[in-house]
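Following up on my earlier message about 2P0. Here are the inputs again, as you asked, copied directly from the submission form:
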Amino acid sequence: MKRRATAQAHPNIAVVKYWGKRDAALNLPAVPSLSVALERFCTRTTVEWGIDAAADSVEINGKAGSPKAAARVSALLDLIDPQRPRCRVQTANNFPTAAGLASSASAFAALALAADGAAGTQFNRNQLSAIARQGSGSACRSLWGGWVEWRMGEADDGHDSHGLQVAPADHWDIAVVVAMVNEGEKPVDSRGGMLATARSCPFYPAWVETAPADLAEARRAVIARDLERLGRVMEWSTLKMHATMLTTEPSIRYWQPATLSTVQVVEELRRQGIGAWYTMDAGPNVKVFCERADAPAVARAMAGAVNRVEVLGVGGDAVLLPEDPEHPSP
Ligand code: 2P0
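Thanks, got it. Here's what our run produced:
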Protein backbone atom coordinates (compact mmCIF):
# COMPACT_ATOMS: atom_id res chain seq x y z
CA MET A 1 0.00 0.00 0.00
CA LYS A 2 1.24 3.49 -0.83
CA ARG A 3 1.50 5.91 2.05
CA ARG A 4 1.67 9.63 1.54
CA ALA A 5 2.03 12.74 3.68
CA THR A 6 2.36 16.46 3.01
CA ALA A 7 4.19 18.88 5.30
CA GLN A 8 4.72 22.62 5.33
CA ALA A 9 7.64 24.50 6.90
CA HIS A 10 8.71 28.13 6.99
CA PRO A 11 12.18 29.40 6.19
CA ASN A 12 14.05 31.03 9.04
CA ILE A 13 16.30 34.06 9.24
CA ALA A 14 19.23 33.82 11.63
CA VAL A 15 19.77 36.73 13.99
CA VAL A 16 22.95 35.04 15.23
CA LYS A 17 24.51 33.31 12.25
CA TYR A 18 25.64 29.78 11.46
CA TRP A 19 28.82 29.88 9.36
CA GLY A 20 31.32 27.08 9.91
CA LYS A 21 31.18 23.38 10.71
CA ARG A 22 32.99 21.23 13.19
CA ASP A 23 31.91 18.11 11.25
CA ALA A 24 31.08 18.53 7.57
CA ALA A 25 29.65 15.02 7.04
CA LEU A 26 27.13 15.33 9.89
CA ASN A 27 26.60 19.09 9.49
CA LEU A 28 27.64 19.83 13.05
CA PRO A 29 28.17 23.56 13.53
CA ALA A 30 31.26 25.35 14.82
CA VAL A 31 29.03 28.06 16.30
CA PRO A 32 25.58 28.19 17.92
CA SER A 33 22.88 30.15 16.09
CA LEU A 34 19.43 31.62 16.70
CA SER A 35 16.72 32.36 14.15
CA VAL A 36 13.15 33.47 13.65
CA ALA A 37 10.64 31.71 11.37
CA LEU A 38 9.15 33.77 8.54
CA GLU A 39 5.39 33.73 8.20
CA ARG A 40 3.76 33.45 4.72
CA PHE A 41 6.88 32.15 2.93
CA CYS A 42 6.85 28.37 3.01
CA THR A 43 7.88 25.08 1.43
CA ARG A 44 5.24 22.40 0.88
CA THR A 45 6.46 18.87 0.36
CA THR A 46 4.60 15.67 -0.40
CA VAL A 47 6.30 12.32 0.11
CA GLU A 48 4.89 9.11 -1.32
CA TRP A 49 6.52 6.20 0.47
CA GLY A 50 6.75 3.18 -1.83
CA ILE A 51 6.47 3.67 -5.59
CA ASP A 52 6.95 1.14 -8.33
CA ALA A 53 10.11 2.60 -9.89
CA ALA A 54 13.81 1.91 -10.22
CA ALA A 55 14.80 5.18 -8.52
CA ASP A 56 13.36 7.91 -6.32
CA SER A 57 11.43 10.58 -8.16
CA VAL A 58 12.17 14.15 -7.04
CA GLU A 59 10.30 17.16 -8.37
CA ILE A 60 11.23 20.68 -7.23
CA ASN A 61 9.03 23.64 -8.12
CA GLY A 62 7.32 21.67 -10.89
CA LYS A 63 10.49 20.36 -12.58
CA ALA A 64 12.64 17.26 -12.17
CA GLY A 65 15.25 17.99 -9.51
CA SER A 66 18.90 18.13 -10.61
CA PRO A 67 20.89 14.94 -9.91
CA LYS A 68 22.67 16.77 -7.05
CA ALA A 69 19.44 17.98 -5.45
CA ALA A 70 17.78 14.57 -5.92
CA ALA A 71 20.76 12.86 -4.27
CA ARG A 72 20.44 15.14 -1.21
CA VAL A 73 16.73 14.33 -0.97
CA SER A 74 17.39 10.57 -1.26
CA ALA A 75 20.10 10.76 1.41
CA LEU A 76 17.66 12.44 3.81
CA LEU A 77 15.04 9.73 3.17
CA ASP A 78 17.69 7.09 3.97
CA LEU A 79 18.06 8.68 7.42
CA ILE A 80 14.34 8.16 8.06
CA ASP A 81 14.66 4.46 7.13
CA PRO A 82 17.78 2.88 5.58
CA GLN A 83 15.62 -0.10 4.43
CA ARG A 84 13.08 2.14 2.73
CA PRO A 85 11.33 1.59 -0.60
CA ARG A 86 11.66 4.01 -3.54
CA CYS A 87 9.81 7.25 -2.94
CA ARG A 88 8.26 10.14 -4.83
CA VAL A 89 8.94 13.63 -3.48
CA GLN A 90 7.24 16.76 -4.79
CA THR A 91 8.26 20.03 -3.24
CA ALA A 92 7.55 23.67 -4.00
CA ASN A 93 8.46 27.02 -2.47
CA ASN A 94 6.27 30.10 -2.67
CA PHE A 95 9.42 32.30 -2.52
CA PRO A 96 12.73 32.54 -4.46
CA THR A 97 14.90 29.42 -4.23
CA ALA A 98 18.60 29.76 -3.32
CA ALA A 99 18.66 33.55 -3.03
CA GLY A 100 19.80 33.80 0.57
CA LEU A 101 16.27 33.29 1.86
CA ALA A 102 16.98 29.98 3.52
CA SER A 103 15.08 27.83 1.04
CA SER A 104 17.13 24.77 2.03
CA ALA A 105 16.04 25.28 5.64
CA SER A 106 12.31 25.05 4.99
CA ALA A 107 12.90 22.39 2.30
CA PHE A 108 14.68 19.87 4.52
CA ALA A 109 12.44 20.57 7.52
CA ALA A 110 9.32 19.93 5.42
CA LEU A 111 10.95 16.86 3.84
CA ALA A 112 11.89 15.31 7.20
CA LEU A 113 8.41 15.88 8.60
CA ALA A 114 6.58 14.63 5.48
CA ALA A 115 8.84 11.57 5.17
CA ASP A 116 8.28 10.67 8.82
CA GLY A 117 4.52 11.04 8.29
CA ALA A 118 4.54 8.94 5.12
CA ALA A 119 6.80 6.23 6.57
CA GLY A 120 4.95 6.14 9.90
CA THR A 121 8.26 6.24 11.80
CA GLN A 122 7.00 8.68 14.47
CA PHE A 123 10.29 10.36 15.31
CA ASN A 124 9.92 13.17 17.84
CA ARG A 125 10.60 16.81 16.87
CA ASN A 126 14.14 16.84 18.24
CA GLN A 127 14.98 13.70 16.27
CA LEU A 128 13.40 15.14 13.11
CA SER A 129 15.38 18.35 13.66
CA ALA A 130 18.64 16.36 13.91
CA ILE A 131 17.68 14.48 10.73
CA ALA A 132 16.80 17.72 8.88
CA ARG A 133 20.15 19.16 10.03
CA GLN A 134 21.96 16.48 8.03
CA GLY A 135 20.14 17.65 4.91
CA SER A 136 21.03 21.28 5.56
CA GLY A 137 22.28 22.71 8.84
CA SER A 138 19.85 25.62 9.10
CA ALA A 139 16.91 23.25 8.47
CA CYS A 140 17.13 22.01 12.05
CA ARG A 141 15.78 25.43 13.11
CA SER A 142 12.73 25.23 10.79
CA LEU A 143 10.87 22.44 12.60
CA TRP A 144 9.51 25.05 15.00
CA GLY A 145 7.93 28.46 14.60
CA GLY A 146 8.92 31.56 16.50
CA TRP A 147 12.48 31.91 17.83
CA VAL A 148 14.70 28.85 17.66
CA GLU A 149 18.20 28.23 18.91
CA TRP A 150 20.51 25.62 17.44
CA ARG A 151 22.85 24.42 20.13
CA MET A 152 26.12 22.98 18.91
CA GLY A 153 25.70 19.78 20.93
CA GLU A 154 28.54 17.64 22.23
CA ALA A 155 27.90 14.09 21.00
CA ASP A 156 30.09 12.76 18.20
CA ASP A 157 27.04 11.34 16.40
CA GLY A 158 25.27 14.74 16.53
CA HIS A 159 22.06 13.50 18.16
CA ASP A 160 22.11 16.46 20.57
CA SER A 161 22.72 19.05 17.83
CA HIS A 162 19.18 20.15 17.01
CA GLY A 163 16.82 23.09 17.30
CA LEU A 164 15.29 24.27 20.55
CA GLN A 165 12.41 26.73 20.64
CA VAL A 166 13.32 29.81 22.70
CA ALA A 167 9.90 31.47 22.25
CA PRO A 168 6.82 30.63 20.17
CA ALA A 169 5.49 32.72 17.27
CA ASP A 170 2.99 34.63 19.44
CA HIS A 171 5.66 35.70 21.95
CA TRP A 172 6.60 38.81 19.97
CA ASP A 173 4.83 40.37 17.01
CA ILE A 174 7.67 42.02 15.09
CA ALA A 175 7.95 42.63 11.35
CA VAL A 176 10.68 41.39 9.02
CA VAL A 177 10.83 43.59 5.94
CA VAL A 178 12.62 41.75 3.13
CA ALA A 179 14.29 43.90 0.47
CA MET A 180 14.75 41.71 -2.62
CA VAL A 181 17.96 42.99 -4.18
CA ASN A 182 18.33 40.06 -6.56
CA GLU A 183 16.20 36.93 -6.82
CA GLY A 184 18.69 34.90 -8.84
CA GLU A 185 20.70 31.97 -7.55
CA LYS A 186 23.70 32.87 -5.43
CA PRO A 187 27.26 32.65 -6.84
CA VAL A 188 28.77 30.55 -4.02
CA ASP A 189 26.71 28.02 -2.10
CA SER A 190 26.80 28.19 1.69
CA ARG A 191 28.21 24.72 2.07
CA GLY A 192 31.35 25.32 0.01
CA GLY A 193 31.60 28.90 1.24
CA MET A 194 31.74 28.09 4.91
CA LEU A 195 34.30 25.33 4.39
CA ALA A 196 36.50 27.77 2.44
CA THR A 197 36.17 30.36 5.22
CA ALA A 198 37.22 27.86 7.89
CA ARG A 199 40.18 26.84 5.73
CA SER A 200 41.51 30.24 4.73
CA CYS A 201 40.09 33.20 6.67
CA PRO A 202 42.57 34.49 9.27
CA PHE A 203 39.70 35.91 11.36
CA TYR A 204 37.71 32.66 11.52
CA PRO A 205 38.99 31.72 15.01
CA ALA A 206 37.71 35.05 16.38
CA TRP A 207 34.34 34.48 14.70
CA VAL A 208 34.01 31.07 16.37
CA GLU A 209 35.23 32.37 19.73
CA THR A 210 32.81 35.31 19.93
CA ALA A 211 29.63 33.55 18.71
CA PRO A 212 28.48 32.05 22.06
CA ALA A 213 28.36 35.51 23.70
CA ASP A 214 26.31 36.85 20.76
CA LEU A 215 23.94 33.92 21.13
CA ALA A 216 23.43 34.55 24.84
CA GLU A 217 22.83 38.25 24.22
CA ALA A 218 20.29 37.55 21.44
CA ARG A 219 18.47 35.00 23.55
CA ARG A 220 18.13 37.52 26.40
CA ALA A 221 16.89 40.19 23.95
CA VAL A 222 14.26 37.85 22.47
CA ILE A 223 12.98 36.79 25.89
CA ALA A 224 12.80 40.46 26.99
CA ARG A 225 11.25 41.52 23.63
CA ASP A 226 13.95 44.19 23.40
CA LEU A 227 14.25 45.01 19.68
CA GLU A 228 17.12 47.48 19.96
CA ARG A 229 19.18 45.00 21.94
CA LEU A 230 18.39 42.23 19.45
CA GLY A 231 19.03 44.52 16.48
CA ARG A 232 22.47 45.51 17.71
CA VAL A 233 23.70 41.95 18.23
CA MET A 234 22.08 40.82 14.96
CA GLU A 235 23.99 43.47 12.98
CA TRP A 236 27.18 42.61 14.85
CA SER A 237 26.86 38.89 14.08
CA THR A 238 25.95 39.71 10.45
CA LEU A 239 28.93 42.00 9.93
CA LYS A 240 31.36 39.61 11.57
CA MET A 241 30.11 36.76 9.35
CA HIS A 242 30.36 38.85 6.16
CA ALA A 243 33.82 40.02 7.24
CA THR A 244 34.97 36.39 7.36
CA MET A 245 33.34 35.75 3.97
CA LEU A 246 35.08 38.76 2.39
CA THR A 247 38.44 37.72 3.81
CA THR A 248 38.14 34.13 2.61
CA GLU A 249 40.56 33.10 -0.14
CA PRO A 250 39.18 33.47 -2.81
CA SER A 251 36.94 36.20 -1.44
CA ILE A 252 33.20 35.51 -1.08
CA ARG A 253 31.11 38.64 -1.56
CA TYR A 254 27.34 38.24 -1.48
CA TRP A 255 26.65 41.96 -1.23
CA GLN A 256 25.65 43.91 -4.32
CA PRO A 257 25.49 47.72 -4.62
CA ALA A 258 21.79 47.75 -3.66
CA THR A 259 22.62 45.73 -0.53
CA LEU A 260 24.75 48.60 0.74
CA SER A 261 22.18 51.21 -0.38
CA THR A 262 19.58 49.38 1.71
CA VAL A 263 21.90 49.37 4.73
CA GLN A 264 22.26 53.13 4.32
CA VAL A 265 18.46 53.51 4.23
CA VAL A 266 18.21 51.57 7.50
CA GLU A 267 20.84 53.78 9.13
CA GLU A 268 18.97 56.87 7.93
CA LEU A 269 15.70 55.50 9.37
CA ARG A 270 17.43 55.12 12.73
CA ARG A 271 18.66 58.71 12.57
CA GLN A 272 15.00 59.69 12.09
CA GLY A 273 14.08 57.78 15.24
CA ILE A 274 12.61 54.65 13.61
CA GLY A 275 13.91 51.44 15.17
CA ALA A 276 15.12 49.26 12.27
CA TRP A 277 18.03 46.80 12.10
CA TYR A 278 19.38 44.86 9.12
CA THR A 279 20.74 41.41 8.43
CA MET A 280 22.04 39.63 5.32
CA ASP A 281 22.76 35.95 4.72
CA ALA A 282 24.44 34.02 1.91
CA GLY A 283 22.91 36.32 -0.70
CA PRO A 284 22.43 40.01 -1.51
CA ASN A 285 18.94 40.42 -0.02
CA VAL A 286 18.47 42.47 3.13
CA LYS A 287 16.03 41.66 5.93
CA VAL A 288 15.11 44.49 8.25
CA PHE A 289 13.61 43.90 11.69
CA CYS A 290 11.27 46.57 13.08
CA GLU A 291 8.13 47.05 15.15
CA ARG A 292 4.91 46.14 13.29
CA ALA A 293 3.70 49.74 13.50
CA ASP A 294 6.88 50.96 11.76
CA ALA A 295 6.77 48.36 8.96
CA PRO A 296 4.90 50.54 6.39
CA ALA A 297 7.40 53.40 6.81
CA VAL A 298 10.36 51.01 6.65
CA ALA A 299 8.95 49.28 3.54
CA ARG A 300 8.34 52.64 1.83
CA ALA A 301 11.89 53.78 2.56
CA MET A 302 13.39 50.55 1.24
CA ALA A 303 11.24 50.53 -1.90
CA GLY A 304 13.41 53.38 -3.20
CA ALA A 305 16.53 51.21 -3.07
CA VAL A 306 15.24 47.88 -4.45
CA ASN A 307 12.63 46.47 -6.85
CA ARG A 308 10.58 44.37 -4.49
CA VAL A 309 9.81 44.58 -0.77
CA GLU A 310 7.88 42.04 1.31
CA VAL A 311 6.64 42.62 4.85
CA LEU A 312 6.48 39.38 6.84
CA GLY A 313 5.64 38.44 10.39
CA VAL A 314 6.82 35.63 12.62
CA GLY A 315 5.92 32.16 11.32
CA GLY A 316 4.58 29.10 13.12
CA ASP A 317 5.66 25.48 13.51
CA ALA A 318 6.29 23.09 10.65
CA VAL A 319 3.11 21.04 10.31
CA LEU A 320 1.71 17.99 8.57
CA LEU A 321 -1.19 19.05 6.35
CA PRO A 322 -4.37 17.00 6.12
CA GLU A 323 -4.85 15.30 2.76
CA ASP A 324 -7.62 17.00 0.79
CA PRO A 325 -9.90 14.23 -0.60
CA GLU A 326 -11.25 16.63 -3.27
CA HIS A 327 -7.76 17.58 -4.47
CA PRO A 328 -5.40 14.76 -3.55
CA SER A 329 -1.75 15.60 -4.12
CA PRO A 330 -0.63 13.92 -7.35
C1 2P0 B 1 22.25 30.98 8.83
N1 2P0 B 1 23.35 30.50 6.64
O1 2P0 B 1 22.49 30.88 10.03
C2 2P0 B 1 23.44 31.15 7.92
C3 2P0 B 1 23.76 32.56 7.64
C4 2P0 B 1 23.81 31.35 5.59
C5 2P0 B 1 24.33 32.57 6.24
O2 2P0 B 1 22.61 28.59 7.46
O3 2P0 B 1 25.90 23.32 4.49
O4 2P0 B 1 22.33 26.06 3.78
O5 2P0 B 1 23.45 22.89 4.34
O6 2P0 B 1 24.55 23.20 6.55
O7 2P0 B 1 22.20 25.52 6.24
C6 2P0 B 1 23.11 28.56 5.21
O8 2P0 B 1 23.71 27.33 5.41
O9 2P0 B 1 24.33 25.12 4.97
C7 2P0 B 1 23.01 29.23 6.52
P1 2P0 B 1 24.57 23.57 5.10
P2 2P0 B 1 23.02 25.96 5.08
O10 2P0 B 1 21.08 30.99 8.38
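One observation from looking it over: The domain at 3-169 is CATH 3.30.230.10 (Ribosomal Protein S5; domain 2). Hope that helps, and feel free to reply on this thread.
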